[in-house]
# Entry
Amino acid sequence: MIPWPPGGAAANAEAGTLVQAYTHRGSLGGGVVAPAARTPLSDGLSAPASVSRDPHPVYAIRIGKHRDGSKLGVLAYAQEHAREWVPPLVTVETAERLLRNYAHDGRTRQLLDNLDIWIAPSVNPDGGHYSFYDFNSQRKNMTNHCPTTGAADFLARNSWGVDNNRNYTEYSLFDGYSGASASCTSGTYAGPGELSEPENRTSTGWPPAPTSGSR
# Structure
């Protein structure tokens, strides 16, 4: 979305679904906008063009001798908070050790023979990419739930997002528990509702997450 003083209705009528115009934090402007040279639109992201701007999928590694649903499932995941860069590496190392040790370690063989193990190195890949290239203190995902009259504009991107660790159904803000915030710019923002975020729906498996979304 881009700010569009003084109104935005005309732009929205012409733009379709790709662009949404709105006034900058509710301001209608104070005068005539001076002419300026035409410049290309930019998303303002520092990542190279090779990094997709679409929502990134959550990948998982499935390990086990019987991967047909007949064995007890175990899920290990990392990087709910985008700035936690080391845990994804730990999960990949865990997968590597399970595979490497299966042939000569009895306890490892017992685990893989009797469990269906799922390892998701990052359940917040959108926030992770943003933390790598733009804002290394990024904690939340990249879903913008802020109203267009507030901190929803381009310059407030570092404060957007939902804390995925506060968006589950157990012991949540919506059940009356403390430790999360209802403010869309808080570092512990719980989102507009339980499981509102595709990352959380994916890691819980229910309800099914949408195939795409806006970021």
Q: What stands out?
A: Confidence is low (pLDDT under 50) at residues 1-6, 207-215. The two ends are 10 Å apart (CA to CA).
